[in-house]
Amino acid sequence: MTITQLKYVLAVAEYKNFTQAAEHSYVTQPTLSMQIQKLEEELEVTIFNRKKKPIQLTPIGEKIIQQARLIVDESERINDIVDQQKGFIGGEFKLGIIPTVMPTLLPIFLKNFLNKYPKVKLVIEELTTEEIIKKLTDGHLDVGIAATPLENEAIKERPIYYEPFIGFVSSDHRLFSKPNISEEDLDIDDVLLLEEGHCFKNSVINICQNKNTIDKNHFQLESGNIYTLVKLSKEGLGMTLIPYLHSLELPEQDKQYLKEFSNSIPAREVSIIYHKSQLKMQLIEALKTTIDGVIRGAISFHDVKIISPLNKKSVEI
Q1: Which of 22, 55, 239, 311 could link 32 by a cystine bridge, Cβ 3.0 to 4.6 Å?
Q2: What global pTM score does this model have?
C-alpha cells in the first residue's frame, strides 16, 4: 500500500470517474486504474462499484476513503513541519472568499500580503460559503474568508472583524425621514435581498423581526450583487441593507440614503476559516496577521450584535 495509491483512490471518489481522476492526478488513466486495482487486490476488497454510472463507493470503500484522507493529510503534514522549522512561508496557497466580502476586503490587504510574502503563490476564488466548506473538506482550498459562526465541527473559525449592517433607503421610502433606523422598523416584504446561496441574505432575514410572515404575493426581487440592490432601491423598489465597507465605496451623492442603526447595531462576524486537519498553518497565520494589521484602520465598531448567517439567535458582544 502506498500514499500514491491512496491519493488515486481519493481522486476517483471525488470525481466518480477514472478518466477525470487521472487527469487531475496528472497520470494516465491505465496507470491510475492499475494502481487502484493493485490496492484492491492487496486488501482483498472492492473499493469502487464500477458498474454504476457514475462510479460509486462500496460500503467498505466508504470506510477506506475516510481513513485514506486522514493518512494522506498526515503524510503531507511532514512537509508542513519542515517548512515551519525553516521559517519558510511560500508555495501555493488557495483562498476562497464569499462574494459580499471579496470586493471590499481584498483590495485592503492583497498588495500588502503579496509584498510581504513574495514566495507565496496566492490563488483566489470567489465562492459561496457552501462552496468554500465543500472545497475545504475536499482539500481543494487551504483557507476561506466567510461570515460566521457556521457551527461546523470540521471547520475552524478565527474572527478577523465585525462589520455592521447599514440601511440604504431611497428618498421616497417611509424610513427616509428618520435619522436612524432600528430592527423594529424593518419589514421583510420591503427589503431587497440577495439571491439564494448568499449567507448575507440569511443574515438580513434574521435581522428582520417579522421574518416568519413573508407575503409571497407581495413584490419581491432578489439579486446576486449588492450594488444592484442599491440601484434598485434608488429607483424606489424598496430599501436594502448593505455591509459597512460597501457603504464607504458609494458615490458621495448616494451616501445621503445611508441610515445607521440607532442602537444594538446588527453586524456580521467575518472570519478566516479552515479545515481542522489543515496543514499550512504558517500561511494562515501570515494571512491573518496581514489582515489584522490593515483592517483596524478601515473598520472599528464595538457593542455590536452579531447576526448569524444561520437560522440562529443573535449574539451581543
Answers
A1: 22
A2: 0.75
Integer Cα distance of 296 and 143 in angstroms: 21
Beta carbons of 136 and 146 less than 8 angstroms apart? no
Extract the runs of DSSP E, i.e. beta strands, from 149-283.
155-168, 193-194, 222-223, 240-243, 258-259, 265-275
Output the CA–CA distances (angstroms, integers) from residue 46 to 7, 79, 239, 264, in the order listed: 16, 32, 58, 58
Q: What is the pLDDT of residues 182-211, one digit of tens each?
A: 888 888 878 888 766 677 777 887 877 654
**Residue 255 Ramachandran class (φ > 0 left, ψ -120 to 50 alpha, else beta):** alpha
Task: Give Rg (Cα) of the chain.
Answer: 24
Cβ proximity of 144 and 274 under 8 Å: yes
Contact 269, 160 (CB under 8 A): no
CA–CA dist 2, 71 (Å, integer) = 10
> In sequence order, what are the residues at sequence separation of 6 or more whose Cβ sits closer than 8 angstroms to the Cβ of residue 23?
none
| 53's grid cell | 454510472
Q: How far apart are CA 252 and CA 269, in angstroms?
A: 27
Residues paired with residue 121 on neighbouring β-strands, in sequence order:
92
Question: What would the pLDDT profile of 246-287 be if each residue is shown by its tens digit?
Answer: 999 899 999 999 999 887 788 889 999 999 887 788 899 999
Q: Do residues 157 and 149 make contact, with C-beta atoms less than 8 angstroms apart?
A: yes
Pairing relationship of beta strands 155-168 and 265-275 according to DSSP bridges: antiparallel
Q: Which residues contact 273 (CB under 8 A, 6 or more apart)?
A: 132, 133, 136, 143, 144, 145, 146, 148, 150, 155, 156, 157, 158
For helices 18-25 and 29-43, give the axis angle rounded to 10 degrees: 110
Which grid cell is 26?
496528472
